[in-house]
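BUG: 3D viewer hangs when loading the predicted structure for this chain

Environment: internal workstation, default settings.
Expected: structure renders.
Actual: progress bar stalls at 90%.

Input used:
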Amino acid sequence: MKKVVTLMMVLAGVFLEIFTQIDKISAAQVKKGSNSNVLIVYFSKSGINYEGYRKTGNTEVVANDIQKATGGDMYEIVPSKPYSQTSYKAVEKRATAEQNRNARPAIKGSMPDVSKYKTVFIGSPIWYNEYPMPVRTFMDKVNLNGKTLVPFATDSGSGMGDQPQQLKRQYPKAKIRKGFSVEGADVSKASTQTNVNKWVKSLGYAK
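Structure tokens produced before the viewer hung:
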């Protein structure tokens, strides 16, 4: 009997260590800010895009602007299989195939623990008038119902596309706030940070 109890205690310790390590991995993927009520989730495509080469993806630039304005934590959606950095045609071909299949590409690492966040900003480039499919993978895996959701996007002239409507369909019990979009060619302009600050302030999230 003592051996059984000892074995159970050992197994309990092993499982506890496993879950602790999983929590650490999840936490490590979230870049901490000063505002623990806000999480900024984004997918961004660096390398070649429709405007040329970008060392830092356009949406990541805007996500960083939002982080500066809100102080929120950050989580990047990173596909397990990266999109091409050098061929825009290859990116288009893959994105079109994923769109046509309604695919859900795998994401690196674990999903973030969103339980403590009241507000989640969620952004990406506009592909085919909606979220790229890696974002749809995230949305299927993470329940954001009951939270306040704020969409943001980078585009080539299309504005927000169907993203706000997609959030409403995916999370019918969430509150959707006014989104923000900017053309990719303008993300590095000083006016974009100014506009982000005004938008964030209008929503009541300025730190």
